Amino acid sequence: MARLLTFTSALVLALAGVAHAEGNPAAGRAVFQTQCSICHAVTPGAGFKMGPNLHGVVGREAGSLAGYSYSPAMKAAGFVWTEDKLRTYLPNPRATVAGTKMTYAGLHNPQQVADLVAFLATQK
Ligand code: HEC
Prior knowledge:
- By secondary structure, the chain is mainly alpha-helical.
- Helices cover 46% and strands 0% of the residues.
- The longest helix is centred in the first third of the chain and has 18 residues, at 2-19.
- The protein binds heme C.
- Heme C binds at residues 35-36, 38-40, 50-52, 54, 57, 62-63, 65, 70-71, 73-74, 81, 90, 100-104, 107, 116.
């Protein structure tokens, strides 16, 4: 019985580890290049592309970058971009911010999402 319990808790810990997989920022940079850089710059002062500059996005209020013309939906989103919020948003942007003009279908690979968010968190 004790062994079964030990095994079960090890399994639970292993699964929790998967759910909160640590992202790899270097891998995330590559994901950013292929998935996001067509519409977003991430270096400070690089300005806007079709989307706002994502430098310092973690910790920034949604829809708040001065000079960028956000959709009314993003302006009214009323939350701060945390790593958790990005992990929720990126697989399905329109489910998190209904009416966003970010026409991106979503990033569905959980490891790529974790890596990308880890990369964004270093861009500050
Ligand atoms: C086809 C162009 C396009 C692609 C590709 C794209 N985005 Fe966007 N993104 C936008 C636009 C346009 C907005 C502004 C949305 C609005 O105002 O509703 C935006 C907004 C955002 C915001 C909100 C920023 C803020 O200041 O509130 C985040 C975060 C974001 N994008 C992350 C990403 C990431 C990460 C990727 C790559 C997985 C990505 N986007 C891919 C066009 C794009």
